[in-house]
Design brief:
CATH architecture: 3-Layer(aba) Sandwich
Radius of gyration: 12 Å
Shape: globular
Helix content: 40-55%
CATH superfamily: 5'-nuclease
Number of strands: 2
Strand content: 5-15%
Number of helices: 3
Length: 64
């Protein structure tokens, strides 16, 4: 993780703690990467990723 990613990661953690929200560490790393590089996030797990401000979360459908 580079300096910019670390700064964004810390900011996300701080905001979530203030709201008493927890999310998985791996999801935090994914969120941080998407925000840092201005990428949208495509996922089947929209609920968890919508907890983080500043990320564009897009739903994909399963072929199941």
């Amino acid at each position: 993780m580079k300096t910019e990613e670390a700064r964004i990661y810390a900011k996300i953690i701080d905001n979530l703690r203030k709201e008493k929200i927890t999310i998985d560490t791996n999801d935090m790393i994914i969120d941080t990467t998407a925000i840092t590089h201005c990428y949208p996030l495509f996922t089947l797990n929209v609920k968890d990723f919508k907890k983080v401000q500043g990320i564009e979360v897009l739903t994909v459908s399963s072929k199941d």
